[in-house]
């Protein structure tokens, strides 16, 4: 159950309108690694979780915070659009190249569809979609996904920080950067704790009996490109992070198999295949040709 | 540049046809965490990389291997479909509930669109799409994405392992499980090496000057749900994984701000707003009503 | 800002596992008119609203409730999947047509991707997407969209009610039906109030100066099909709902214009066009042919 | 059956080329509420309709008209692009910021993909898709969807009206505005007629036995946000639009239930769960640590 | 301008209900190569065409016919669904495996969303989308696209023909097969005529000055796989179809270039790169390690 | 199996940075007819093929080459972005309209998401998707699809050639144009060979017994538009390309059928239908009205 409070977690007001920047901010609102993604991802992980207690409380606790970040970004975007030129003729697009340039760089649906409002899309206008989230039920896999999401997110916010010098916007971004710092650390701590407490080990999923995998290649680097430096990394020699093997290095595959013969499905699927009478047919055609010549 | 060799990295032939299983295998071919995803993800990371040498050689080396995994799965799927009932009337769907059930569980486009062939889609028929991949240019973020992809992928393959007892299919899966074990280990090793060699630290991106984030909340757990056990985790007290702070715990937000007032964009965007003469209008209407009564 | 409470608004537990029904329930969780849609739609309307007070409080108040409905459905789906056959070989798919039929009717990603968990998708596995929502800033238009969403939603829940006889599921649906009844009524009441208070009139948007539209056809039914009964409706004669005109009826268009001539863009876009020397070219070719014969 | 006539319903020729505006016009051609949407929506409602006569004639009559509007917009867009700078080097993008700005604001696929032609996409380049339409078979729900579509559409056209001062474009828009006025009125009239004639009542679907919903909350406003003004609306007290109840107001939920315990699906789905030996494992680890210290 | 007539081009009524088949038929209604695709494709080609006369009349003439085919399929699907079991509990899904199997094979949105009606989706439930169509303005390219669309379409209809023995359905399919035969022939005839009349030649686009392409490789087969039989085809020796060259065969590339060095974009994009002080940093770390040991 | 070599097939380095052009190049990398499409299309055709030998070797041989073209374009795009203004504040967007215009025309995700790297998207930012490819198992249909793909691709590259005067970019494009010339010719040659050798004939699929189609309309042009010139083409009279018939011309349909009556599905799907007591209800209402008046 969610209760909404008409307050923000942090001040979210720009000094100046800036419709081009509003479009860029959409990335961290509605993009692959935007706030809608992490909010939904953590909540679905909670709803699908198979263990009560601290891990479930954690995903619910942070998931709810992230919905508040969606709200902070949406209100910021609406304010950036409020007094900005959005292509109305009076904006003199035709005459002033600066204004024309600005209008050219906006999300034109901000004006036409949302009437100067935020939208659940990324910075190129692609709608947010459910495939952005990850919630597998395996917590070590999912917390690694979460750590990645916070890293990608913080990288994007850091880039956006340098694309404006609006003091109000930067303040909000500095807050989001700090929360991303926290959340990166937290997911890495949680992933470590999961392993220390015996919930899950590497390789994920750890309770699949490893004897049933083809162990001859479980710790073997096989190089399918011709870059020789790949042999120099810690992934090509020495102990493996899961503590269960030693890396080895091999140029190309260590096993190969012939490609199976082509399939011949039911003829009523009308694929092209070797017909029994192909040879005859061709022979006939060749003869026809010879006759004509 | 890619050279194709008409061999497979491993034997990929089922013992029996099974169209329902063919559909399920599509998940690890063309799903969010399927082989197309990792192949494309590693290659784009290589093409966008800003540093030569072992890390680039690594993504190219594994990316090319993954394209070969796409091929192994596609040929397996085509063989699983080869002699399976696919809804042709002669399959007696109407009469035999077992056959009907099988046909009901297939990807019907396998027959109608591909003529008993594999497709670049997931197990529910959603087409593979470019948003599945991650290639940010920041290697610590991206290698964490890669580790996650291999964990999710290995979890899915492990689940699929129990959904068949076909010996040929299981052999292929046992090979893929082993490679996922290798690749999980390898990306974690590479992520560690990146940090040890000073390329990148936590929090990602590490060269953003952390003094510009709102540091008061950089290591503070803020609990937006009412689960008290969230306070018990290693993310609520003690040193942080980035080695730069101490976690603290707080119930709910530590900062709040009033929600900014509603925006008032250009009236020619025709949003609904308080009109200057609203009060008058309403007064008039009320009077009209009173008169009528 | 959102606070999460680990309680549900209503009891949400099935009597029996049912993976096929879990898939169907996804429609009202993650479909075009599912709970994610209305939750996001009302919230974006709030964030983009240009007027403070009761209308904004309304969308925030109901939007937050709807996120709780997402949660009730997600937990219900996870429970429906908990003990259900999901295609694990031990489920004896091969032998028992009933089990095979059940497995064939499931969302196979429930098992392979989510490990028996809910997903942000509809009943055919299409991911939820941002284009499902409507938030234009014009409240009369948007409240009409909301009324429609609640009507479509209640219709879908009513259909789902007859697709199960599980008492626990039906109890949850009876609760959702009641809330949809409330929300239908509420949006219609709000739309009426908007008009009575002078915020907005028909036709939407009402402050566009109607004199600038081509008024000759503003209230004219033009019948482009050959169904004569279209003339019998209240849309073909009598006063119009906006109180500003009288409907009239006309067979087909009342105005026509010739189609403009084809365009001739820059030749470096390599479209096919009448070449200046076409005639000559053809003449030459014909002559060539004659010579050969 | 459709017959095409090489005439337009109204004059559709711009005074001047304008590629930036051509892109904006795509919204009302191929966007969520563009003409393709309404054309397809009304036709599918006709094909799926369960009652002959005036309602079916109506959707067919207007649906066919809307396909003609698609045509008017497509020909207009092709003409706007005909002589406009589209990024050909000779357009001197590099030197003249005005031209650069114009080119920057275009749909670059207009040139690269369509060779200066219209496309079935919206103003941000997202392809039109089938999920934009609504055709449930319940006519009161669907006519409400139609009224909403015409309101959103007219709002977008009104916004676009102010984004150009090209006389030819404005003439076409003034025609479309008038038809949207007509269609808004018509769907509202049809929705009213449906109810008056007893086809359907509120709440939709009206023939679902309302006694089977959880009536205690059927007319109760439950406020999940902290905005007190929500209590002031006509949705919080007084008779309900469906004529069957009285609105009441409540702060937050009137019913709650504990969240069900976490699920424990088959272990071969490899979700993370409380392992039987977790306690022992942790104890062992702690002891190990103590020994080391 | 389109006029709709409430007649079909051909009889479209099934003998028996069949919801599973209704789902399959969706492929040729709303799939990649379904009737919506060809209808929209031909119409957009017409609206974007740069030459008046027979080619434009052709695309308009056939495009309008195809919209009628959409209608025939939609009405057929609605009838196939009319009396079929759609998962209503009374259908006894739980008890009768045959019925369960049938329901498992349906498009469940047919019942839940459309109330037993057709939908603008393919046979796996993916919504139709604008990217399915092709309209480049180059007629030789586009007519080749059209020929392909009719070939794919006829192949799919032929497959569907064998998936039912319902006489009514087969009659409709036999009609569609005949029209696909016609349309395949027609587009090939039109493509030939375009070339004979000098509108366009091979290679498309023919008015691009071929001297500006890198002619050394214009007619050279370069084999990037190790299949030797590729050298045996008519594409590896002899005259080329465009009449302008001779095919030659080469194993692998005939030109190569070193991969350019990695890029080094602005450091504020926070990609990982060789830092100036990397060497020093690593040296320091190594020393630290040595000290500790 | 794929082996990667760290070389390019051709030199791929621009003379100057150009972020706007980098965005445009995305079309031929990740668009509907970009290099990812043809690479994946040819490979899937190979994996699904039912005949060994030269045709399979051909698709594998060219498919692998196309993956190398993806790589050339991705490295080119990364270089075009390397030193280009990407919206960093120091780029002085606010002051210099030329820079502002440039930034406005970029793919803003190039900077925010990829840190100046290439992405698997088209020039409007839509992600590449699996529905772009065609692999039906019928080789004549598929080779026609391939010919079309190369024609559309070459047309797009030719257009892009005129949108830059960067010598390095043009060199790469001249190489791609030449390969597209080759590939167009090759697919047309292969399609011809398929027919000459008796694998497949027109109409596709040729082994469907043509006597089962409704032959009365197999070669009949039916004109559903009012353009009279459609009768002048070679598709309206004379022998058909498949060598099996004679074209004829007819104004409009030659067969028609009445539209079937509306369907009446199960009432628990809550569609609107003629209720048994409708007449009574209306009569009652009318009487009520009369009483009131």
Summarize the structure.
Chains A, B, C, D, E, F: Residues 230-276 are annotated as: Disordered. 6 copies of one chain form a homohexamer. Chain A has 293 residues and is mainly α.
Describe the structure.
6 copies of one chain form a homohexamer. By secondary structure, chain A is mainly alpha-helical. Chain A has 2 domains: 19-196, Ferritin, core subunit, four-helix bundle (Ferritin, Up-down Bundle); 210-251, no CATH class. Helices cover 46% and strands 6% of the residues of chain A. Chain A has 8 helices and 6 strands. The first copy, chain A, has helices spanning 19-30, 35-47, 54-82, 97-104, 108-112, 139-161, 167-196, 278-292; strands spanning 2-4, 7-8, 220-223, 238-239, 246-251, 257-258. Chain A has a 3-stranded mixed β-sheet with strand order 3-5-4, with no helix packed on it. The longest helix of chain A is centred in the middle third of the chain and has 30 residues, at 167-196. Chains in contact: A-B, A-C, A-D, A-E, A-F, B-C, B-D, B-E, B-F, C-D, C-E, C-F, D-E, D-F, E-F. Chains A and B meet through strand 2, helix 3, helix 6, helix 7 and strand 3 of A and strand 2, helix 3, helix 6, helix 7 and strand 3 of B. Strand 6 of chain E pairs antiparallel with strand 2 (7-8) of chain F. Chains A, B, C, D, E, F: One of its GO terms (molecular function) is metal ion binding. Chains A, B, C, D, E, F: Its cofactor is Ca(2+); Mn(2+). Chains A, B, C, D, E, F: Residues 230-276 are annotated as: Disordered.
């Amino acid at each position: 159950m969610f209760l909404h409070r008409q307050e923000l977690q942090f001040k979210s007001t720009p000094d100046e309108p800036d419709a081009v920047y509003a479009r860029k901010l959409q990335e961290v609102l509605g993009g692959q690694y935007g706030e809608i993604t992490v909010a939904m991802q953590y909540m679905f992980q909670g709803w699908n979780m198979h263990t009560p207690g601290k891990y479930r409380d954690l995903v619910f606790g942070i998931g709810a915070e992230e919905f508040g970040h969606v709200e902070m970004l949406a209100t910021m975007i609406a304010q950036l659009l409020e007094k900005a030129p959005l292509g109305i003729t009076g904006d003199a697009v035709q005459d002033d190249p600066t204004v024309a340039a600005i209008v050219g760089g906006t999300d034109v649906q901000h004006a036409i569809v949302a009437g100067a409002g935020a939208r659940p899309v990324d910075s190129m206008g692609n709608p947010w979609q459910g495939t952005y989230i990850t919630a597998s039920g395996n917590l070590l896999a999912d917390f690694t996904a979460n750590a990645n999401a916070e890293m990608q997110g913080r990288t994007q916010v850091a880039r956006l920080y340098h694309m404006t010098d609006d003091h109000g916007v930067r303040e909000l971004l500095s807050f989001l950067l700090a929360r991303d710092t926290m959340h990166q650390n937290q997911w890495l701590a949680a992933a470590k704790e999961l392993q220390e407490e015996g919930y899950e080990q590497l390789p994920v999923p750890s309770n699949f009996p490893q004897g049933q995998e083809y162990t001859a290649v479980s710790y073997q680097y096989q190089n399918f490109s011709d870059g020789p430096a790949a042999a120099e990394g810690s992934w090509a020699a020495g102990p493996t992070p899961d503590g269960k093997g030693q890396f080895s290095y091999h140029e190309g595959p260590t096993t190969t198999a012939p490609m199976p013969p082509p399939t011949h499905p039911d003829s009523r699927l009308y694929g092209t295949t070797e017909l029994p009478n192909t040879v005859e047919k061709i022979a006939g055609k060749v003869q026809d040709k010879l006759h004509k010549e």
